[in-house]
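Complex 396.
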Amino acid sequence: MKETWRWFGPQDPVSLDHVKQAGASGVVSALQHLYRGEAWPLEEVLKRKAEIEAAGLIWSVVESIPVHNSIKLRTGSFRQFTEAWKDSLAATAKAGIKIVCYNFMPGVDWTRTDLRWRLPSTGFALRFDGTDFAAYDLFLLQRPSAEQDYPAERIAAARARYEAMPETGRDDLERTIIAGLPGAEASYTRTALLSLLSEYKSITGGELRAHLIAFLREVVPVAEELGVRLAIHPDDPPWSLFGLPRVVSTAEDVRAILAGVDSPANGLTFCVGSYGARADNDLLAMVKEFAPRIHFAHLRQVTREGDRSFHEAEHLRGSSDMAGVICALLREEVRRKSENRPDYEIPMRPDHGHLLADDILRQVNPGYSLVGRLKGLAELRGVMLGLRYAIPELAD
Ligand code: DNO
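Predicted structure with D-mannose bound:
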């Protein structure tokens, strides 16, 4: 697998030299400042590419081209935004980047409730707490009719949690949930979030899925023509938030997406941490079934705590079988090689790292630490080498 590393551009406190020191050869990046659904100008894409190449690295994957909410809702100017998305795709293809990650989460992108959760090791992890999230939704945001989306016990637990929370804790929780994590399309104020959620209010899971397939029917033929592989990122967390449906959470969701437009250009980002947050996702079965359509891998994992809560674990320790997933991906690479596919190598990145050592004093993007990810990549690299050493047919 190609070892890659997410870089948020020149503002990222983790520099391209750090990427090289970590031993990655590919970079995963996006024009982070153009997140409102506007088309990415070719010159800006080329500028980012030149910055990456000047450091002796390659821009391997675009993560992400944001999909505007109007496309998910199929309202307003969605046609215009779809055209802009295709233009961004064309610009990145022209610059030679042929794998594009995106997501179709309604309203909010990836979400956590705690960005500095103390680990027994004394480092810090990201965490999602189902009760804290409900407390925010019900009692701080006060989303209309939110109580219909939670069972009575969860409401009672959330009320108790909310009442015990100091004012500063409430502010922190709100900031963590709606201020926009790195890579998210946008950040919201409470009022802006409520108004966005009201636009989504009546959408059903069936409708959202139909909107995704309609979008894919538009963009996959363009990707095919450009020689680009699209790689949809799963919902994170993979269940409903704010009462909105999510349609990229389970194996069944993935099957519907892949069958919706049956083309190699319509593929997946296999994010072990996102799919692995659900106990009913059998990751090994999924990676085997979907392997030919996996174009990008996010290797991190979570420890499921039950009750819709999880924290981010060490890359090799958590609720999922990371070595099994890597082994299945290496087998897929061998299969692709036997078909002489030039794109046999699947880019992987060590997703999210703990805050460790010097990370703790630095201002890094949540999840995108230096030492924590470096440790993750080193461990994952060890697994890849070990598997190749032990299983002759996986050897290079
Ligand atoms: C979080 C990331 C997400 C991801 C987008 C993909 O760390 O995995 O921000 O980039 O959801 O569109």
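The pocket of D-mannose is lined by residues 63-64, 101-103, 109-110, 183-184, 233, 298, 352, 367 (CB under 6 Å).
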